[in-house]
Specification:
Elements (H helix, E strand, L loop, with lengths): L1 H34 L13 E3 L5 E3 L8 H4 L11 E4 H4 L17 E5 L2 E7 L1 H4 L10 E5 L4 E4 L1 H5 L2 E3 L9 E3 L6 E9 L4 E3 L6 E3 H7 L7 E6 L4 E4 L1 H4 L3 E4 L5 E4 L9 E2 L2 E7 L3
Parallel strand pairs: 3-11
Antiparallel strand pairs: 1-2, 3-18, 4-5, 5-8, 6-7, 6-10, 8-9, 9-10, 10-11, 12-15, 13-14, 13-18, 15-16, 16-17
Length: 275
């Protein structure tokens, strides 16, 4: 009987060892899967120095439970490049970050069609461009028509906008009386402003194509609270930016693991040039 008990104890001990090994392997694989997403994010399984989206070295210890936010490049370390600014989120408060409730743009009163109308200075959105608009801009209307404007002409314009409406905002110059059902505008430096009204969806690759952005490069999606995620080119075509009923703009990229492929309150797209 004693011999039988010893054998039974030995068998149970061996089973426990295999079970613990299997659990450990599963945990490692789960941790690696949760933290390995794109080339821009470090994997915690190796314990080596990895490179993040800004090309900076990040040391990740073996078995670490670091998340993407832990290794995300701090906003003040980012070197700005070309921006595509989403005007709905550039003109209103959605979260503390670039704005607070007190510093967010305020509507001004302009005369439009012989009536006092609330409108937002276009310069609020233009100020997010990295390279400015000294050479003027090209404005695209919703019907495809284009209008060239000088720096002074565009800077004098306002957006008449209902953030909860699916109607295009009106780009309006109170002096010249020019008014355009606004879709987007481009600069000579491959930057610009883009409109995503409420209840409309826009494919992210189709947006970047309008600005001639290189298909080899990644795109950083920057939120109004300064949280940001990199989206590789291959994911741009399957993702979208959509206007919500609150007037904010959110993004989703189903095949992306970083941040579960979702980002709320997207303020601008930023080009990450390939090395």
């Amino acid at each position: 009987m004693k011999t039988f008990k010893k054998i039974l104890v030995t068998i149970l001990a061996v089973c426990c060892v295999f079970a613990l090994a299997a659990c450990g392997d599963t945990t490692a694989k789960t941790t690696a899967a949760a933290n390995t997403t794109t080339a821009a994010e470090a994997t915690t399984a190796t314990g080596t120095v990895m490179t993040n989206a800004q090309g900076e070295a990040v040391t990740v210890a073996p078995g670490s439970n670091l998340t993407y936010k832990d290794i995300m490049v701090p906003f003040d370390k980012i070197v700005p490049t070309e921006h595509i600014v989403l005007i709905q989120n550039a003109l209103q408060y959605t979260a503390d970050g670039f704005y607070t409730r007190d510093t967010a743009p305020k509507a001004e009163e302009v005369t439009y069609k012989d009536a006092a109308t609330k409108a937002y200075a276009v310069t609020h959105a233009l100020n997010f461009l990295t390279y400015g608009y000294d050479d003027g801009v090209t404005v695209y209307a919703t019907d495809g028509a284009t209008t060239a404007m000088t720096k002074d002409e565009i800077a004098a314009c306002y957006f008449i906008i209902d953030f909860q409406s699916d109607a295009a905002p009106v780009l309006y110059n109170p002096t010249s009386k020019v008014e355009i059902a606004f879709a987007y505008l481009t600069t000579a430096k491959a930057e610009g402003l883009y409109s995503i009204p409420a209840s409309t969806n826009h494919n992210t690759k189709e947006i970047t194509d309008k600005y001639g952005w290189d298909t080899k490069d990644q795109v950083r999606m920057m939120a109004t609270d300064k949280f940001h995620i990199p989206v590789p080119t291959e994911n741009l075509a399957t993702g979208e930016l959509r206007g919500t009923l609150s007037g904010a703009i959110n993004g989703s990229w189903p095949e992306l693991t970083v941040a579960s492929g979702k980002l709320n309150d997207v303020l601008y797209l930023e080009l990450l040039h390939a090395n």
